[in-house]
Amino acid sequence: MSIVEPVRLTACGCLTPFGDEAATHRALVEGRKALRLEPVLGVKGGDLVPMALLPGRALDETPEPAWLPAVKALAQRIPGSGWGTVRRPVIFTSSNYGIGSLYAHRQVAADAVHLGHCTPHLSVDWLRRELGWGSQITLYSHACVSAHLGLLQAERLVKAGLADEVLVFSYDFLSPFVSAGFHALKILNGAFPAPYQVQETGSIGLGDGAAFAVLGRGRGDLVLLGQSVYNELHHFTANKADGSGFAKVLQPLTSRLAGRRVWVKGHGTGTLEAGRLEAEAISAAVPDAPLVGWKGSLGHTLGSCGLVELAVVACSLGAGVAPGTVGSSGPCFSPSVATGPFTLSGGEAVLCTSNAFGGAHAALVLAHA
Amino acid sequence: MPLEGRTPPWSSPMPEFYIQALNTDDAGAEEPSATRERLRGAFPPGATRRMTQLGMLTGAVLAPLAPREEEAVIYASRFGESRSLEAYLDGFPSASPTLFQTSIHPSGVQQALIGRQAPCTQLFPLSGGEALVTQALLTAWLAGAERCLFCGGEERGTWLVEHGAASTESFAFAMSLGRDPSGGPYIGRLRLEQVDGEGALPLRDWFSLLHQRRPFDGLVACGWRLCLEWR
Questions:
Q1: What are the pLDDT digits (tens) for A332-364?
Q2: Which member of B96, B114, B129 has the closest CB to residue A358?
Q3: What is the pTM (predicted TM-score) of this model?
Q4: Chain B contacts of A85, Cβ < 8 Å?
């Protein structure tokens, strides 16, 4: 009988306005918010909306992106070498890639330097050279479930024996391109997000974020028990009213959770309908599991949110305490929503979920090995 | 070597697909309005009004393959919705919510599938450069679905083209890929192998191979060789 080892989370880290995953976890446990009110159009002004930018970074992209030093520092923490080769490929995930540079070129300064990293491919090719990685790279872009697709493909590459280890690297830095878009959709407004909270008007915040995860066999204290994706493709910005998409993505994972204590790191952007459907579906699938969401503090880091928040989840498991739903005070759409931090006993599994435009859903289960 | 000449069929853990069906549309320099007029009959009345050119092209080539919920859809586009992107950027400071939505990758395939109300379990949208096709095929293989739909394309940009940030031509393809030769008739076969060496196969060149049903055998990315044969 052969024993197939599960794929482990060998390493994981993130960058948020609070700093690395440990600093981010600490801030969330303390209930602090990184979101600040900023002009939606950056240097061109506009309504004030909640955004969480890296310290000292302006919303408008600079010719050499101002986030590069922080991303380089994050990348230096990735264990191992030889990334971007056939046996150690890199999967990049983002919904923004270099779009801030394209906006800056067209609207702020017609500077040729911006154009060097203004498309997904150009942005990644420039960044991987800056980081000293090879050309064995994949780019996924599926809005706010992008990072989950990277994690799923990484697990599959390792399981199939097509790679020894896979690095998933995600980065999303805000620009007026994206803030104005969400503002036009009226979900980015002057109010701070209160995920899963019952209220009159929903609102989101947006955040800068980057993160990495290394998946492989044999090393690491955490293991991926399962991953799942589902796409409703019912409407661009709305989910099916019966919440079936939220339920379907959880269905394949519930057997992996049987007999375990579970807590849930949800998507929880702060919109009302999606928040209600998500909370109800999670409550039905794992009835007694506490549900938390962190976008009320970090803002929505878009295509990177699944990986940024995974790094905080991993940190929570190590620290023995999970941050609560910062920004929400109740009443909430489900009694499962935990608005404050809670202690972990060490044996829990964590269900992590993300959702995106087009009714896209993704989920994974992480636990101690 | 033609497919019939190889017996027994290849057997390898490396990715191998049987091409069950293929649709291509080489729209070239066609304007979006002309594409809308040409493809109007492929969509329900009024559906094309807000669709992008890439959305219409992708929708028209994908529709005959009748995507099913349990299948995997892999979508590849280097530049995505270039015209929407241009129009959205030029609309500032009044950002259009519709153009924002349609400019976001993977709007093209989402327009196609939402128009059909066609849910799918796995949707993997890729972007990228010279290795885009290879990575898309690897993604398709590892998706593990009995049938996988691989589609993609580009739409011709205007001012973005001057900056190398949009395609100079519009095109789209959609193919049905099976893992089992006994799963039904097939028109071709493709296989990826891990090898030493570097190569490139940009999306436009891949489209030409498909559109002209040309065979190919060579390096297509760092460490990958592709063999494409037609019946």
A1: 999 999 999 999 988 899 999 999 999 999 999
A2: B114
A3: 0.96
A4: 222-223
